[in-house]
């Protein structure tokens, strides 16, 4: 069962309010003012003893950082396509000054880096360098995104959350694509296709065993993630029997817990099953045992290349429902209340899918424009399937009454609602409605900074799709992680002054939430608990306010077209 929370009693509510005021004041102060006089010049390197051995970290940007520590054994040989196993303890002092290699993946979008590493189950910890001995801080565990096939913990600087938020911040790598998500009929059902989620749970158990040695409180853990990382947090919330005691609060950015997913049986059957497609690309036998032996014998780079050849959808490699790892769908869990009952902060970006429209437009040759004929022939079928019950005409009348729109407007249309990709605001609201029935607290947000960095950050350097981008998918990461760039260089641009002020407010709110309070912060109005779509905090430079997100995103219209999939309704 979840541990008690600060909202459980009046004294705890008072303590939380006092802590929130102190934290807000602390975050607002410059770093030089906050530094402890006794620790004004911390040593550059420190050694901490974990359950597996001693580790050496270094101070960067005012944070003491430990990087690349093994939290599980390398998943190679017979451990490929198997649950993570304990790491082997070591003698001496482990050099934890560099990130571990990102897990095997292909380069994507002319931006991210490729990897063929499987010895990648590594974890990182950042904490304020001036943390006095014996003090315990709340812990925030970050799960990276990357469409279930990419990304890595080396992309995120944790120091600002650690130092300004007064948190111990953890990140880690987990298996991706074919290695983390591809079920196979020759394997046991229990964790089949769920190894990436099991990696994450192994990392959370590592936190429980070790985080006190780094100054963290294992009974104050917030699990947070963005995009695929946020949906992984959903999967943990929907599997309370598997994660009890591993975290006490959660943050979702750009994921809907009601996102439909294939079942394990669906993923295993038929000629289009991914294990068959990958195996065929590699010339593997088609009988299950022969296929498994062949797939385990292949070099990691060959598996990545095969994955690239046969994968065509954003959900080709994603969680499956019906194993012990993820025993139920979001719809089933939220209808029955079988969900981890912890406080939740949840939201997304206003213009999520303008990013994917931009990727489409950057293809060579580029797709057609957005006139009425192209909408019907190319764009609407791509995201809305067959034209049933006059849906195309209804969408056109609602969004393109004059017959044509531009790419930005089409991206906003998709970001309001689409049945193909769970990155859309009406599905977020429907998920919030379903979750709020069961959770002690839920706070909802929408990130809407139109000046957030995108070119060179979410879109490769030198590329420009020629449309207004706005607050696209993942643009909120720049507000939480300094100089975020989707590359290990962390060389994203400085934020504009108004965007930086919003970033400061968001970081303060996220930290207050992780400290056990509501997400209150200087620069933001009072943030109500979620009761309906009218309780969403709009995060916008100079104009942050509580507003009705269902009106902005025309959810009533989408509810009429998709009554079972986009139904935000008041509690």
Shape, principal axes of CA atoms: globular
- Level-1 CATH class name of the largest domain: Alpha Beta
Strand content: 5-15%
- Total helical elements: 21
Share of helix among residues?
25-40%
Q: Which class best fits the helix and strand makeup?
A: alpha/beta
Looking at the overall shape, the CATH architecture of the largest domain is: 3-Layer(aba) Sandwich
| Rg from alpha-carbon coordinates | 23 Å
CATH fold-level label of the largest domain: Rossmann fold
Low-confidence blocks of residues = 1-22, 24-41, 566-571
CATH homologous superfamily caption of the largest domain: Alpha/Beta hydrolase fold, catalytic domain
Give a short summary of the structure:
By secondary structure, the protein is an alpha/beta fold. It has helices at residues 10-28, 31-34, 159-165, 177-181, 195-210, 228-237, 240-243, 264-268, 274-281, 288-297, 300-310, 330-336, 354-361, 372-384, 391-399, 407-416, 425-436, 477-480, 497-514, 549-552, 555-561, and strands spanning 45-49, 54-60, 63-70, 93-95, 122-128, 137-143, 168-172, 216-226, 249-253, 344-349, 442-447, 536-539, 545-547.
């Amino acid at each position: 069962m979840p541990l008690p929370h600060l909202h459980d009693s009046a004294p705890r509510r008072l303590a939380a309010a006092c802590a929130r005021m102190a934290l807000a004041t602390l975050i607002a102060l410059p770093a030089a003012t906050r530094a402890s006089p006794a620790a004004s010049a911390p040593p550059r390197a420190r050694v901490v003893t974990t359950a597996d051995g001693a580790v050496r970290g270094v101070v960067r940007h005012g944070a003491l950082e430990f990087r690349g520590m093994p939290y599980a054994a390398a998943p190679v040989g017979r451990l490929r396509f198997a649950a993570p196993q304990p790491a082997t303890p070591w003698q001496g002092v482990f050099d934890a000054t560099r990130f571990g290699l990102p897990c095997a993946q292909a380069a994507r979008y002319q931006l991210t880096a490729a990897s063929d590493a499987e010895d990648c189950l590594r974890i990182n910890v950042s904490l304020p360098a001036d943390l006095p001995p014996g003090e315990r801080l709340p812990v925030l565990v970050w799960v990276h995104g990357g469409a279930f096939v990419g990304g890595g913990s080396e992309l995120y600087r944790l120091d600002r959350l650690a130092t300004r938020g007064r948190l111990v911040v953890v990140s880690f790598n987990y298996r991706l694509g074919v290695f983390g998500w591809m079920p196979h009929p020759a394997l046991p059902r229990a964790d089949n296709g769920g190894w990436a989620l099991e990696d994450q749970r192994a990392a959370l158990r590592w936190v429980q065993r070790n985080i006190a040695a780094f100054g963290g409180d294992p009974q104050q853990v917030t699990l947070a993630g963005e995009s695929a990382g946020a949906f992984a947090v959903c999967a943990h919330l929907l599997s309370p029997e598997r994660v009890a005691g591993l975290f006490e609060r959660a943050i979702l950015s750009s994921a809907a817990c009601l996102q439909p997913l294939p079942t394990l049986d669906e993923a295993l059957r038929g000629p289009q099953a991914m294990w068959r497609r990958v195996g065929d690309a590699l010339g593997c036998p088609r009988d299950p045992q022969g296929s498994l032996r062949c797939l385990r014998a292949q070099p990691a780079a060959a598996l990545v290349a095969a994955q690239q050849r046969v994968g065509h959808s954003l959900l080709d490699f994603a969680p499956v429902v019906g194993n012990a790892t993820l025993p139920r769908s979001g719809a089933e869990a939220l209808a029955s209340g079988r969900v981890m009952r912890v406080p939740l902060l949840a939201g997304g970006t206003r213009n999520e899918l303008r990013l994917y429209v931009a990727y489409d437009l950057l293809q060579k040759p580029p797709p057609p424009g957005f006139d009425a004929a192209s909408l019907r022939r190319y764009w609407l079928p791509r995201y809305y399937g067959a034209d049933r019950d006059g849906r195309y005409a209804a969408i056109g009348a609602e969004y393109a009454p004059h017959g044509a729109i531009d790419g930005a407007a089409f991206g906003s249309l998709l970001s309001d609602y689409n049945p193909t990709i769970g990155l859309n605001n009406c599905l977020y609201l429907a998920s919030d409605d379903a979750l709020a029935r069961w959770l002690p607290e839920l706070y909802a947000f929408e990130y809407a900074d139109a000046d957030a960095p995108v070119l060179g950050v979410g879109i490769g350097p030198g590329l420009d799709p020629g449309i207004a981008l706005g607050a696209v998918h993942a643009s909120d990461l720049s507000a939480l992680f300094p100089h975020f760039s989707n590359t290990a260089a962390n060389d994203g641009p400085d934020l504009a002054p108004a965007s930086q002020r919003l970033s400061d407010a968001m970081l303060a709110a996220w930290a207050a939430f992780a400290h056990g309070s509501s997400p209150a912060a200087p620069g933001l109005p009072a943030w109500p608990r979620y009761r309906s779509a009218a309780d969403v905090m709009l995060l916008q430079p100079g104009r942050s306010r509580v507003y009705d997100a269902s009106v902005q995103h025309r959810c009533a219209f989408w509810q009429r077209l998709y009554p079972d999939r986009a139904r935000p309704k008041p509690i």
